[in-house]
Amino acid sequence: MRIKLYIYTKNPRFFYKINNSLNKLRIPFYVLNYGVKLRNINGIILTTEKEYNNAISPENQTDRFLVYSNTQDFEEYLMHVLATHKFGFKKQYLKLIFSIDPGKNKSGMAIFLDEYFLISKILYNQKDFVDNIGKFISYFNSDKLKPIMIKIFFGIGVPSLVESLLEVLSRKFKEFIPIFYLVDERNTSKMKYNKHIFKISKHEISAIWIAIRGIKAIKSMKILESNEENTTSELPKNLNSEIKFDENFAKNIYFGNLSISDALNF
Questions:
Q1: In this predicted model, which residue has the larger pLDDT, 119 or 244?
Q2: Domains of the chain by residue range
Q3: What is the rounded distance in angstroms from the CA atom of residue 121 to the CA atom of residue 15?
Q4: Were both Cys, which of 4, 103, 169, 215 would link to 43 (CB 3.0–4.6 Å)?
């Protein structure tokens, strides 16, 4: 069940940005009249730092608020709003997964938090990969003393591109010691799905399915999380897992109802 979102602001700039962004993400929300009592609101309230400090009484300043600061990257704020809407409020995530369907002209990338699907993107060049991976690491790597675990799954359909990306990303994000996986992506480009339900491209769907195949292979091989700690940069692990595309299965993951592991357990 999705967490309800409420906008509480009289700041026109913030209202315009969050209103447009939520509509683009197709996330439903409610607008609260400024000055209304917030005690019985069942959901997460989106507001600005100034309004939170000046208009919200201290006893009501709880985790029910997601507060935007003018010094904050707006996309970072929006991704935390999206994650809260999908999975509920969390102060910290343990695992950030990037799953990539490489293509000659454009690639799909799916991003997961603790194995729950967050969002997907189309990328066109090497800079797009570096910029997006860097941004999402900064967005969710909140505890510097215990860095978030980074996993990057690559479909191996375009070996030259994967080889180039492995070299660049392993060097660029060396401090986070990401774990790289090469995943067999046979037949992912032939998947048939209802575009009215998923509303994303085949490249993004393929990226989601590459992550599912990868994690299924990890579970089958009984690779324990305790053996995957970010302690050393090893050669990429090769994973091969045949799992036929199933739309209902994919929907549960795409809408954030289940993590990949939970879905596979079912």
A1: 119
A2: 5-87, 95-265
A3: 25
A4: 4
Give the model's pLDDT for residue 58: 74
Q: Tokens 């060097």 appear where?
A: 171
Contact in structure between 154 and 181 (CB atoms under 8 Å): yes
User: Could you give the CA distance from residue 237 to residue 191 in angstroms, rounded to a whole number?
Assistant: 25
Neighbouring residues of 133: CB distance < 8 A, sequence distance ≥ 6: 98, 152, 169, 173
**Residues 45, 6 contacting (CB under 8 angstroms):** yes
| CATH no., domain 95-265 | 3.30.420.140
Where do the H-state alpha helices sit in 113-244? 126-140, 159-172, 195-198, 202-220
Work out the pLDDT band at 229, boundaries 50, 70, 90: low
**Structure pTM?**
0.89
Using DSSP's 3-state secondary structure scheme, residue 118 falls into: strand
Nearest partner of 105 among 120, 122, 86, 92, judged by Cα: 122
Three-class SS state of 211: helix
Q: 150 near 180, Cβ under 8 Å?
A: no
